[in-house]
Amino acid sequence: MDSASPQQVTQLLIDWRNGDRDALDQLMPLVYDELRRIAKRSRRAHPSGNTLQTTDLINEAYLKLAGKSGIDWQDRVHFFAVAARVMRYLLIDNARAKQSAKRGGGGVQISLDEVALISPERSREILALDEALERLAAMDERKSRIIEMRYFAGMNIEEVAEVLNVSEVTVKREWTRAKAWLYRELKPYE
To answer: Is the pLDDT of residue 52 over 80?
Structure first.
C-alpha cells in the first residue's frame, strides 16, 4: 500500500466523500496497484473459473465504489477493506449467476476447454464460503471482517487492527478462532 503517502490518499478520500468527483479521479491511479493485488487475491480465494478477470473485477469494484456516497472513509486501509468486500460480493454474485444459469437460466455457448474452468462444484464452494461468512457475521461481525480483510484483502495484522480500532493481540486471537470455525463449517465441502 505504498503507491502514495497515507495522508495523500486519506485526504483524497475525504475530498471524495465531501463531493469532489475530481478527488476520485486523482485517487484511482494512486491505489490501482493495490486494488489489482486485492483483486488477484480475491480471485484466488474464489477459484471458480470466474468469468471476471482481474481488470474486470477492478473496474466493476470501481463502479460500485464510485456509486457509493456518504462513506465516512477513515483512511486508505479502510478504503482497501471496503474494496475487498466489494470484490468479494462481485465474485459471489458471479458464482450465483452461474448457479442460476445451470438451473436453466439463459444458456451460453462455451467451448469444452472452458467447461473445466466453470465447474458447478467450484461455484457451490464459493457460495458455501459466502454462506459460512454470513453465518459468522451474524454470530460475530468482527471475526467475519477479520477473515475478509486478512484473507481477501491480504491485510496484515497491524492493518486490520488499525481498521477495527482494536489491539493486534485481539486480531491475532480472533483470526485464529475465526479460521478454526470456518474450517469446521466448510469441512463437508472438501
So the answer is: no
